[in-house]
């Protein structure tokens, strides 16, 4: 009743059961602790019932009849109080154990699921962002994993606890007096009907709200990334208006979710009040007719209140479950996205790489386009040469890059590395052969040292790489030198400095093939000259392949190619570029 139905659970169960099974022992321990805590809850009112009946009426309690009991009422009261305290202690201890175990499970599973989702995202093609905003994907990775794991590690155990409490309480009520049990429980079918109606509405409202939150997050990230352009173009008002419109849709969805939740809560409270009233009236009538003790009435009244405590929680549980399962559905949609390429069984791990790359009669067509982007492309790249590719935008230059690093496979034809077809090489091993300098320089926030290396390079190697791109003097002049903080994408550096830093990072990778996508675009003349000088050194030992619109770089090519209408033509055959000396 708290879920969208069995059909909504099945795909989630199939997708995530292995994640749960990996922690089966912890789950078993947590559920065992909850079971003991429920037993303590069900037994808790009994000392009070016995105390009322024995002390107030002087009768020997039926439950204690076979046991040797002290004669003083005060001694009995002390004994029963101690029993009540002991039961309460057990309940408290088991609750604490369960919460610690559930918290441990929640943290571990959130960590593992986020790692799994990120690993999957990193296998998907670069066209992913044409259909999915980066902000939405971040929300899936961070927020939805947390919501879904909470359903598994917190909400589901709570449902188990409430169901067990409900069953145990009903059993005790029937044992004490079936008539009062019937009076208190006659309302439960109505509760079930209300829940079947309103819980589904709440589920739908929660899903709509999360969808709108994804829209807000996606647009917010776009606004933050484009702040400079928005300010320079004077479109702040239009941007705020668009953000307000999207945010207003989220507000409306949130208000609707709250309205449904309040309606469900109000109904539950009315039903609980009616059940309490009927139980109290019926119990009082039986006490007056000497068919029920005062202690029994107190016990049954406590049980009715306890019976509806789980019902009171169903509102929150329905909301949390709805949000969490909706998050799980979104995670499933991301995990269902298929990589464009996969590792072939038994893919080779490369040891020594010569660096000879070939495209042989390569054709390629994107799934969402009518015509092929590449048509019969032949290209051979060898070490010691700088090959440069020019051509109009959209002609297929970036596609050739993507095929070389195997982000896609050709529709037909073959891409080879040292006479090995790329699909026969393990992806991890293949991509470890490339150092890539992209047009959109991507650097993580952190320090300059962290931007340059993953910790494998020595300080001497870092300074050598910085010297290669003429950044060593600049970095030495910074207050913290290599440990100077840089912001997201190193926006506290100039465009030229970022590009040079990225080239230094590529140099530190010490890989046999260097791929450059518009390395001179949107940078100052000084940085362009530094990069060209660095390439003159690197081209002597590495396979270098660059895509550019810049004639300065094209003029330095050993081989120059042009692509147009999906076909590749060699403009300049092999020649040796000789750097002009002053």
Task: Provide key terms for this protein.
18 helices; 582 residues; alpha/beta; disordered N terminus; six-stranded mixed sheet; four-stranded antiparallel sheet
Structure notes:
The protein is an alpha/beta fold and 582 residues long. Helices cover 61% and strands 10% of the residues. The chain is built from 18 helices and twelve strands. The protein has a six-stranded mixed beta sheet with strand order 6-9-10-3-11-12, sandwiched between helices. A hairpin with a 2-residue loop joins strand 11 (559-564) and strand 12 (567-572). It is elongated, with a radius of gyration of 35 Å. The relative contact order is 0.09.
Based on secondary structure, the structural category is: alpha/beta
Mean pLDDT: 78
What is the gyration radius calculated from CA atoms?
35 Å
N-to-C series of helices and strands: HHHHHHHHHHEEEHEEHEEHHHEHEHEHEE
Q: Based on DSSP secondary structure assignment, what is the total number of beta strands?
A: 12
Number of helices: 18
User: What is the straight-line distance between the termini?
Assistant: 82 Å
* Share of β-strand residues: 5-15%
Strand order of the largest sheet: 6-9-10-3-11-12
